[in-house]
Amino acid sequence: MIQSMTGYGKATADFPDKKINVEIKSLNSKNLDLSVRVAPLYREKEIEIRNEISRALERGKVDFSLWIEKKDTADAATPINKGLVTSYYRQILEISETEGIPQPEDWFATLLRMPDVLSKTEAPELTAEEWGQVRATIHEAIAHLMEFRRQEGAALEIRFRRNIADISKLLAAVEPYEKERVDRVKERITEALEKTLSIDYDKNRLEQELIYYIEKLDINEEKQRLQNHLLYFISTLEGPHGQGKKLGFIAQEMGREINTLGSKSNHAEIQKIVVQMKDELEQIKEQVLNVM
Fold first, then answer.
1. Average pLDDT for consecutive 10-residue bins of the chain (292 residues)?
2. Which of 3, 27, 224, 284 would disulfide-bridge 149, Cβ 3.0–4.6 Å?
3. Rg (CA), the chain
4. What CA–CA distance (Å, rounded) separates 253 from 259?
5. Distance between CA atoms of 205 and 216, rounded to whole angstroms?
6. Gap between the Cα atoms of 152 and 55, Å rounded
7. Strands of 60-70's sheet, edge to edge?
């Protein structure tokens, strides 16, 4: 079963003081084009995250984001460094007394503006327990994206089968015009010889020339090859995922046969049918770019 390269997944993990958000989305690309943005706390795990995504998704233009939402709790407030406030107060008081400089009118506001009074003294460390929960959240987001890809792939398969069925019907519609086309070619040449040129001619030689001319316009091989390509496309759809490039190659071969059929048709109705085939094939080529 085919999968689309288009997908989206999101998951969250709750902690007492924060919520971790993981978001991953992908679009079509010839290879894996991965962009990763993670919160500073988890930056040491970026290589591991990249490896997990690469193993799971294989191809596509992938954007991964991991960010933190702080919760409004008492513990979330930036702590005041009490020891530093006391030290600043004593130093300012000492300088005021020894140098005769007036003391601040609003001590508290002055002290809070001093360097590092409101900064956290230690950077948080990533624990193994927390990383285990975040890693599970990443896997959950990837799983959501892969499910999205499978659903999109199923929709694409339905569309492809409809396009292939339409081309097959159009190919069958060519047959009634083939004998008519031969008769018209023979009639046109004979009429030109008898009425326009008004000359006697060797009918046996005419038959030989007609056979040669009609063989050059014969489209049976193109029809057979196109039918084989249609069947091969369907059997490839039913294979394992990762067939996107192969389906693209088959579509190119289908295009060659349809173009040759059109150039050799020499019949207005057949050429109309060829145009309809090309329209169906263009829809296939456009959508096959999204297939894994």
1. 93 91 94 93 93 92 93 65 85 86 83 74 77 95 96 95 97 85 70 60 64 72 94 92 90 95 85 95 95 89
2. 3
3. 37
4. 10
5. 17
6. 20
7. 7-14, 18-27, 60-70, 32-38
3-class SS of residue 206 = helix
- For residue 260, what are its two tokens? 């040759």
Helix H or strand E encompassing 137: helix 128-191
3 state DSSP class of 119: coil
Say which residues have a Cβ less than 8 Å from residue 35's Cβ, sequence separation at least 6.
62, 63, 64
Q: Could you give the CA distance from residue 233 to residue 247 in angstroms, rounded to a whole number?
A: 6
Helix (H) or strand (E) holding 21: strand 18-27
pTM above 0.85, yes or no: no
Q: In angstroms, rounded to a whole number, what is the distance separating the alpha carbons of residues 281 and 166? A: 10
Q: Which long-range contacts (CB under 8 A, 24 or more apart) does 72-76 make?
A: 73/16, 73/17, 75/16, 75/17, 76/17, 76/18
Are 189 and 206 spatial neighbours (Cβ–Cβ below 8 Å)? yes
Structure tokens at 250: 């088959």
Residue type, 156: L
